[in-house]
Design goal:
mainly alpha, 78% helix, TPR-like_helical_dom_sf, TPR repeat, Tetratricopeptide repeat protein, TPR_rpt, signal, Serine Threonine Protein Phosphatase 5, Tetratricopeptide repeat
């Protein structure tokens, strides 16, 4: 009801302005009373948004009692609500012509003209409205927009100056002026405008600094922000922007100094510390020095000490540890991250990849299974679950996981190749050699140098002693394409062994041992088999013993050692 009363007061006041002033005690003519009743009924319908009936009522009032500014005004608003814009413009113009001193009519007409791109007409109307109401904010801003659309930037600046003179300085006016001046490449003039705001609002220094930064005036921006921080040591936005400024310059020392300053302020929030840490990281070059990593890890530990449940810092720390090749520690840091925020997708990815690098397949099984719970539609995690199940010899479950990975994988060819190669391994283990070969052939047809397919297909052909010539071709391509992997030389050696080329096999297995830093059960067992065929039984037994030390549950190795011979 307040809105209804307010609008009726505006419009009836306007009606009163257009009528002849008469004493209050004079009898109201019946015709005028009916006109007011019709207008009031139209207003009620308008306010309940029954625009068609309101339109009919206002039209009926005009037809019965003649054109009246207030009725025409409301008719125009109703026509606008009904999206009858041309008619709304005509009605608004008539209302304004009948009552030239009514601000609300001019405001409405100016808005309509502006929205209909009638810029010349809108300019004249808005100027008339501003004469009646000099603090008409929307009018000034519409004028500025019109001048900018027409490319009259000087007129736009003059309008903003008039607005400032009439209403006083404000952030809105200053920012509008600065935007225009920056468009004109008048950076110093824009900064000069901003100085007025800095005096009344010290935080406006952020806007000033942003202008300097966007114009590559980094030193000036940094100094401005440092001065602001000196005046207010808790000005956290200034710290953040200063860190970004240094990061844009790759100024490692600058970002480091800011981060130290932030960490010295216990009252500053974690988000600022984390952002500043990110800026410090971005300022470090790709060839990060050992001392840089040490400093960065120290910063991480300082933040973790004060904010131990914030996952983001653990991710930063883990990334650093990966760079410094501290793989196990990196994985532990990622695990801490998901402990506090299980939704960090990148951390889960890193964890399963590091599990593979560390050959911790029991951990990979546990982590990839958990990852599929949080990301059940992501094929990458299903693939790693299947891979872990293969390594732990749970082939039936592995096949299910890999089939799920394949169903979810839509456009990642490389992942599809890995999935197919892994499924082929399972078929090999289950004795389904033809299905295994078919999948290996599919992978190599699309990617002749796929390491997994080359390795396992070569091994399949060697162990089955079928098509050993092809096995040699594939395994030679394998070690040529991937010369740093010990397992690949182990496969090549085994292919040669099955062909009876024991001396060449021994050379290959020695290369595998040289490249295997941690030692491998398979490599030492194969080494023993090769030495046995070369007539070096004692050395063969020594190699088998090394293999058994790596897997004490291998009964086949126990028998080889006991019988001092190869047991088929």
């Amino acid at each position: 009801m307040r809105i209804l009363v307010f609008l009726i007061l505006i419009c009836t006041a306007a009606m009163g302005q257009s009528a002849v002033d008469e004493p209050q005690d004079q009898k109201i003519e019946a015709k005028e009373l009916k006109a007011e009743q019709s207008f009031t009924e139209g207003m009620k319908l308008y306010l309940i948004e029954d625009f068609e009936k309101a339109y009919a009522e206002f039209r009926k009032g005009i037809q019965a009692y003649g054109e009246n500014a207030s009725i025409l005004f409301m008719l125009s608003k109703t026509e606008m609500a009904l999206n009858r814009i041309p008619a709304a413009l005509i009605s608004a113009k008539k209302a304004s012509d009948l009552d030239k001193e009514n601000f609300f009519y001019l405001q409405h007409l100016g808005n309509l003209q502006f929205k209909q791109n009638q810029y010349k007409e809108a300019t004249n109307t808005i100027k008339k409205a501003l004469k009646l109401k000099p603090n008409f904010v929307e009018g000034y801003l519409n004028l500025v927009d019109i001048y900018l659309i027409e490319g009259k930037e000087s007129e736009a600046l003059k309008t903003l100056a008039d607005m400032e003179e009439s209403m006083g300085s404000s952030e809105q006016i200053t920012q509008a002026k600065q935007t225009i001046l920056l468009k004109q490449n008048k950076v110093d003039a824009a900064l000069k405008e901003g100085k007025k705001m800095v005096k009344t609002d010290p935080q406006y220094v952020l806007q000033q600094s942003s202008i300097l930064i966007s114009n590559s005036r980094f030193s000036e921006a940094a100094q401005m922000l440092k001065n602001a921080i000196d005046e207010n040591p808790n000005f956290m936005e200034a710290y953040g922007l200063l860190a970004e400024t240094y990061a844009k310059q790759n100024n490692k020392q600058g970002t480091k100094d800011v981060l130290n300053s932030i960490l010295a302020q216990n009252s500053l929030p974690y988000s600022l510390k984390a952002n500043a840490l990110g800026s410090y990281f971005s300022s470090l070059k790709n060839n990060t020095q050992t001392e840089d990593i040490t400093d960065a890890l120290n910063f991480c530990d300082q933040i973790i000490a004060k904010h131990p449940e914030e996952a983001r810092t653990y991710v930063y720390k883990a990334d650093l540890l990966v760079k410094s090749n501290q793989i196990l520690a990196a994985r532990d840091a990622y695990l801490n991250a998901i402990k506090y925020d299980k939704g960090i997708f990148e951390a889960w990815l890193a964890i399963v990849e590091l599990d593979v690098k560390l050959a911790k397949y029991d951990d990979l099984l546990k982590h990839s299974e958990k990852a599929t719970e949080y990301y059940p539609n992501h094929s990458y995690f299903w693939y790693h679950l299947g891979f872990a199940q293969i390594q732990t010899k749970n082939y039936s479950d592995a096949l299910i996981s890999l089939e799920e990975a394949q169903a979810l994988n839509t456009n990642n060819k490389e992942l599809r190749h890995h999935i197919n190669a892994s499924m082929a391994e399972i078929y090999h283990q289950n004795g389904k050699l033809d299905k295994a070969k078919e999948l290996f052939e599919q992978v190599l047809a699309e990617n002749p140098n796929n390491e997994q397919a080359l390795n396992n297909y070569s091994y399949l052909l060697a162990t089955s002693k079928k098509d050993l010539d092809k096995a040699v071709v594939l395994s030679e391509r394998l070690i040529k394409s991937y010369p740093n992997q010990a397992a690949n030389y182990d496969t090549f050696a085994w292919v040669l062994f099955q062909r009876g080329e024991y001396n060449k096999a021994n050379e290959a297995i020695e290369l595998a041992i040289a490249k295997d830093k941690n030692g491998s059960e398979s490599i030492f067992e194969h080494k023993g088999d090769i030495l046995f065929k070369l007539g070096q039984t004692e050395n063969a037994v020594s190699a088998w013993k090394k293999a058994l030390e790596l897997n004490k549950s291998n009964k086949k190795l126990e028998n080889k050692i006991k019988e001092r011979t190869i047991i088929e």
